[in-house]
Amino acid sequence: xxxxxxxxxxxxxxxxxxxxxxxxxxxxxxxxxxxxxxxxxxxxxxxxxxxxxxxxxxxxxxxxxxxxxxxxxxxxxxxxxxxxxxxxxxxxxxxxxxxxxxxxxxxxxxxxxxxxxxxxxxxxxxxxxxxxxxxxxxxxxxxxxxxxxxxxxxxxxxxxxxxxxxxxxxxxxxxxxxxxxxxxxxxxxxxxxxxxxxxxxxxxxxxxxxxxxxxxxxxxxxxxxxxxxxxxxxxxxxxxxxxxxxxxxxxxxxxxxxxxxxxxxxxxxxxxxxxxxxxxxxxxxxxxxxxxxxxxxxxxxxxxxxxxxxxxxxxxxxxxxxxxxxxxxxxxxxxxxxxxxxxx
Length: 344
Description:
Layout: E1 2-8, H1 12-27, E2 31-37, E3 53-56, E4 63-64, E5 67-68, H2 70-75, H3 79-88, E6 95-99, H4 102-111, E7 115-119, H5 132-145, E8 150-153, H6 170-173, E9 184-188, H7 194-202, E10 208-213, E11 219-221, E12 224-228, H8 231-240, E13 243-246, H9 251-259, E14 262-265, H10 272-283, E15 288-289, H11 295-304, H12 316-324, H13 331-336
Parallel strand pairs: 1-2, 1-6, 2-3, 6-7, 7-8, 9-10, 9-13, 10-12, 13-14, 14-15
Antiparallel strand pairs: 4-5, 11-12
């Protein structure tokens, strides 16, 4: 099949999981054209596996000090460019797959091409526990932002719904023999003020921190090693780290849970999905969560938190079957894949 695969590039989690599924689809002989939106092309990294790809402006939230700025987001949204980007898509595809990427989804509607939504956001179309804000958000945003004909939803747990477990990079699945460094904490906080976080981490002398951020080369500041974004290096440091401090997205927390890492999550405030994720992670006792990162918060997490490990079964083969056979109901297979990981 000729597949247009849309990826929301606003967060690296969308890119990370799409990398896995696109690789599997290519191995099956499908022709994939990738469309990134939501990030400037110069800020994309490790993109060779996605070639050929298209990069478009799309939509992205404006964020300040770890909080979504809705008014600024609206002011900076270019609706004309969005519809023009849809217009520029060619009718060359048998199916569109979108990881919460709107241009590809609306192009599918324009050409009446079957569209399959893949990702965590589509779990909000099922009957799962949700915060009040997330319930309101789910009534319209996923349906109108990326309208799809069929969805393949993922979550930390199935909640007796047809939801798949997270899909995990093979590098992480084959990491059992890696040596864990007990004094290293991995930090990935793209929405937080870097200067504030460096000051906080520098005061915690008992640990070393590896901080991934948008820089060109490594830089050491006291006990913090700042590193430029790199998929390969990040996975290596994730495997070897004692714990992880991050926002409350979906892909990275899932990888931490799979590896059994201590996890501290601070949601992007004002972003309903991340606030929902934080509550679910806390309720399931899979992570420590907070609304404000301080020296005291991190010290308490280091000293008193514990980790839980869930060996999620790999759902990629089943996802490929669903994409190749969208007319078939795979609900029973989706529930069965959880197996002995059913009880939390």
